[in-house]
């Protein structure tokens, strides 16, 4: 009896102890290795952004240096294959800005009101249907928007406004407006839902109607979220390429609403395949300008989010 | 209770209904139009043959194979990396500055338009790494592009795992890696699958990032063990890129619509699948 107890209480022998320590050390090593793997995975995003930025600057920068910043950004003539080539992209920059502005002007009110409908007004069954519709809109590939634009929107615009060719800035704006809708609807809906119930109820209790509450209380309270949606929508519209190239006509013109235009994105795609030398470098420089646009938007977005968090 | 009917209210309410109506009608209109014009041109031979000059028939089998290849390569690369990054961000990082930087760069990647990815992929993978216009170059480019989708969706899934599970596992002496492998990842699996499906949607719909990386080839896959790998090095147009080619040529609109219909069907399936998964996730 005594002996049994002694055996139970006996400490592990030297060898066994070593064994336990070793397995503990092994486990610790596995832990460390995996932590390092996870850190490396997380670093991929950072490294990608650094490399992309570096490559955009290195491949776009030299051309801007050779052409001259002023001539490149504010030059109005784009004649890359002429005997005396000129590389002015002002028209493309303006076309991109106007196109985006138009898309936001059309898309934001429709998107915001749709999100109000989903968040506040819709009967429960319609809510699901609408949300599904918005998700589908977000999932449709750009080339399909382009195809619809080419076959349906362009002829329609030509007919309604009596144009010889419907391929114009206005058609591009219409397509872009539809494409930014899902972004705006989704983010506005989320932020409308995040408005504290007390605010809404206080407003209703004071005798305001539901519509008054929506426009005077809920939308102002959700404005930082709505702004986020707008900035993201701008990003999507500025960067859209394939849908626009199929409807905008693609002639480098000082942009007019019903004239054929070439945007920065479409300018790149259009000439990449046959460009060479300085011409190709200039196309990369357009990419760099676009990239700077997007980065500035990103910083704005960050500022908006920070303000919203406060 | 007496409320005066304000004409302004009625007007605004009308506008809200109108906007919602426009949104839903547009979606249904676009989808219906594509399906009605495209589906009749889809036939078995259209889906299972390559385009042939001899018979003058058009088939999209090479494009389907190219699309599958690119989906597969992209997911093979970006899924493990994305999940690893998400695990680091939710399980190890805490609220350090490093985590903030990673989250910021992930947002940045998400905001970069596809055409920029296309230019970058062309310079880095096609020219610098000497991959030529190839399916591999396209897949590598898209791997960076879908990374934010995978990281963010997986992060959401990991965050929504009940913290008690974590604590229980660690409390009975499991190591952190063991806990992640046996408790966390299985619980977050529906979310991770959602991330993968969402990425498939993005890859299938992508075009601008692929034209200058994967190119516009339509070579058929050689069904030999070596051919399966050699296909990675050939230039290959995906469905979207092929649609664009046909549409811009302007003569084969029927084919464009048929490809568009195939794409729409894929989009519908993907939406359906994510919906189902989301529902299961909420219950489970």
Automatic annotation (TrEMBL), chain B:
Residues 64-274 form the ABC transmembrane type-1 domain. It holds the Pfam family BPD_transp_1. GO terms for cellular component: plasma membrane. PROSITE patterns: ABC_TM1. It is a multi-pass membrane protein. InterPro entries: MetI-like, MetI-like_sf, Phosphate_PstA. The keyword Transmembrane applies. It comes from the Bacteria. GO terms for molecular function: phosphate transmembrane transporter activity. CDD domains: TM_PBP2. Belongs to the binding-protein-dependent transport system permease family. CysTW subfamily. This is Phosphate transport system permease protein PstA. It comes from Zongyangia hominis. The gene is pstA.
């Amino acid at each position: 009896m005594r002996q049994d107890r002694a055996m139970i209480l006996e400490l592990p022998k030297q060898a066994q102890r070593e064994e336990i320590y070793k397995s503990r050390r092994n486990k610790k090593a596995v832990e460390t290795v995996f932590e390092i793997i996870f850190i490396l995975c997380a670093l991929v995003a950072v490294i990608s952004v650094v490399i992309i930025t570096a490559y955009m600057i290195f491949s776009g920068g030299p051309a801007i240096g050779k052409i001259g910043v002023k001539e490149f950004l504010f030059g109005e003539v784009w004649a890359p294959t002429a005997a005396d080539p000129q590389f002015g992209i002002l028209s493309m920059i303006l076309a991109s800005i106007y196109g985006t502005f138009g898309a936001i002007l059309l898309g934001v009110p429709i998107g915001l009101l749709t999100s109000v409908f989903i968040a506040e007004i819709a009967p429960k069954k319609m809510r699901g249907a609408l949300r599904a519709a918005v998700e589908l809109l977000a999932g449709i590939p750009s080339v399909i928007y382009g195809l619809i634009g080419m076959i349906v929107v362009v002829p329609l615009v030509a007919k309604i406004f009596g144009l010889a060719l419907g391929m114009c800035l206005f058609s591009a704006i219409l397509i872009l407006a539809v494409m930014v809708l899902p972004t705006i609807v989704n983010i506005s809906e989320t932020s409308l839902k995040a408005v504290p119930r007390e605010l809404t109820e206080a407003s209703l209790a004071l005798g305001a109607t539901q519509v008054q509450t929506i426009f005077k209380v809920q939308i102002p309270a959700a404005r930082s979220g709505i702004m986020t949606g707008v900035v993201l929508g701008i990003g999507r519209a500025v960067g859209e390429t394939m849908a626009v190239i199929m409807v905008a006509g693609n002639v480098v013109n000082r942009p007019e609403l019903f004239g054929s235009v070439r945007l920065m994105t479409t300018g790149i795609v259009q000439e990449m395949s046959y460009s060479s030398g300085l011409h190709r470098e200039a196309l990369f420089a357009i990419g760099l300008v676009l990239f700077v646009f997007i980065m500035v938007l990103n910083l704005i977005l960050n500022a908006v989010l920070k303000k919203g968090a406060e | 209770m007496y409320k005066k009917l304000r004409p302004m209210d009625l007007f605004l309410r009308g506008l809200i209904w109108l906007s919602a109506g426009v949104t839903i009608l547009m979606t249904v209109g676009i989808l219906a139009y594509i399906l009605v014009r495209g589906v009749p041109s889809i036939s078995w031979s259209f889906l299972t043959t390559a385009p042939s000059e001899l018979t003058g028939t058009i088939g999209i089998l090479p494009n389907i194979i190219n699309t599958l290849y690119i989906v597969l390569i992209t997911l093979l690369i970006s899924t493990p990396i994305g999940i690893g990054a998400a695990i680091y961000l939710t399980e190890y990082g805490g609220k350090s500055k490093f985590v903030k930087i990673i989250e910021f760069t992930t947002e940045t990647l998400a905001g970069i338009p596809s055409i920029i990815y296309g230019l970058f992929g062309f310079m880095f993978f096609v020219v610098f790494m000497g991959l030529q216009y190839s399916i591999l170059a396209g897949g590598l480019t898209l791997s960076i592009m879908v990374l934010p989708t995978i990281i963010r969706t997986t992060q959401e899934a990991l965050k929504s795992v009940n913290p008690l599970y974590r604590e229980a596992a660690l409390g009975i002496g499991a190591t952190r890696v063991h806990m992640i492998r046996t408790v966390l990842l299985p619980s977050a699996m529906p979310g991770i699958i959602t991330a993968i499906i969402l990425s498939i949607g993005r890859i299938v719909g992508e075009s601008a990032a692929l034209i200058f990386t994967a190119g516009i080839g339509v070579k058929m896959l050689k069904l030999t063990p070596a051919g399966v790998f050699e296909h990675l090095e050939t230039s290959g147009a995906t469905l979207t890129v092929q649609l664009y080619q046909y549409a811009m040529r302007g003569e084969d609109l029927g084919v464009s619509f048929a490809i568009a219909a195939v794409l729409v069907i894929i989009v519908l399936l993907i939406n359906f699948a994510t919906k189902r998964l989301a529902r299961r996730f909420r219950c489970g």
